[in-house]
Amino acid sequence: MNFPVLAITLDLDDTLWPFAPIGARIDQVLHDWMREHSPATATLYPVEAMRELRERTFVDNPHLHHDLSALRRLTLAEALDNSGANPALLEPAYEAFYAARNQVEFYPDALAALHRIATRVPVAAVSNGNADLQRIGIGELFAFQLGSREFGAAKPDPGIFHAACERLGVAPAQVLHVGDHAEMDVAGAIRAGLRGCWINRDAHTWTHPELQPDLQFDTLTGLADWLDANASSHLA
């Protein structure tokens, strides 16, 4: 399939890097931080208990599902409060979390492919997560980063896609959204009038019979190759 792509919006977690190892590291880093700075909190909330508290905070605050940073702060604040800790520890604890959150290990193909893609078309990060591209060290490859926290709603809300297209100055039909999640990324983008590219690294089955991805690859390299082969004529 060949069609004009004048810009790309790109998901981050589980598209450029796997999130599961980050999540596991965050849990341990926070526990180690609490053991040093608030032992009572570490005792009351070992890793599994802190994870359960975080999951309960998520369930109890659906109005904040677009703002993972706020949910994390709520979790930490409750843990500190319940253990009688100094509330002033909240922001240092959050910083310990956030530093670990931005220590990513790219998929083997992702960084080289991203460099190739960014030389062809403007790329904007559109994510429900709270990664910081500057901290990670790849901010220069992106035109901008638009998170669900900043926008006020999470994918697959069409508004976040439309806001990204507006900032790019490109009509939605000429923007390709690229991501791993069938609903939040691909189906959401297509319903919003964008093209959708599914990065399906684990050979999942497509479960939206009413629509299909415009493109599908098992690595980001596949998309870079497709742009090299098919998009040049649209970029003159």
From TrEMBL:
It holds the Pfam family Hydrolase. The keyword Hydrolase applies. Keywords: Hydrolase. One of its GO terms (molecular function) is hydrolase activity. Coiled coil: none annotated. PANTHER family: HALOACID DEHALOGENASE, TYPE II (AFU_ORTHOLOGUE AFUA_2G07750)-RELATED (PTHR43316:SF3), HYDROLASE, HALOACID DELAHOGENASE-RELATED (PTHR43316). This is HAD family hydrolase. It comes from Stenotrophomonas pictorum JCM 9942.
